[in-house]
Amino acid sequence: MDIEKLIKNLQLRGFSVQHFGTAGEMVSYLSEEIKGCEVGIGGSQTVKDSGLYEALKANNMIHWHWTDKDSDVLEKEIASEVFITGANAVSESGEIVNIDGRGNRLAAQVYGIGKRVYILAGRNKLCPDLSSAIDRAHNVAAVKNGNKFPTRTPCKIDGKCHDCLSPDRICRATLIIHKPLMDMKKMEVILVDEDLGY
After folding, report:
1. Would you call 66 helix, strand, or coil by DSSP?
2. Closest CA to 53 of 89, 86, 75, 22
3. In the chain, pLDDT over 70 holds for what percent of residues?
4. Residue-range domains of the chain with CATH
5. Long-range contacts for 57-61 (Cβ within 8 Å, ≥24 apart)?
6. What would the mean pLDDT of 136-158 be, rounded to a whole number?
7. Is residue 29 a contact partner of residue 18, using CB atoms and an 8 Å limit?
């Protein structure tokens, strides 16, 4: 991967971009960037592994269904003025790919007038082109995510996506973001030179 080419392509598409050597640097940056805000967090192993949630909850109101069991937490995540999530894959050409089962994470990334969205991606999420990014999202991220749940899907048997019709299927919608969405205040991609999440 040519990280400089990726950054240039993201910027040409209109994304803000930050690039850090470590997850700790990313956490420090976002802790300063986001203060006193209502923040929604999509299901993200990257957020969990990096310690970002713990850092942000000191100065913000956080809505995250992984930690908050309120019945309306998903609606609060989507409606928050700031939304943070990981990427399942980012192509060198500058597209961001995510897969979801419920759609809350996808909806929160693509709609919100005046909203700020931050999409986090470790080096393990970077792919040479859109085709390989889609493949990674289906055959790496979705499979690993599916293994967390007591589902009965073919990918649990052999570790690869079968585009199945199982009622337990959790990869129900795929989102490709080509450019920041209209009317958003900011859509920023944060790249980190470490393996983060899956």
Report:
1. coil
2. 86
3. 100
4. 3-129+174-192 (3.40.50.10420)
5. 58/31, 59/31, 59/34, 59/35, 60/34, 60/35, 60/36, 61/37
6. 87
7. yes
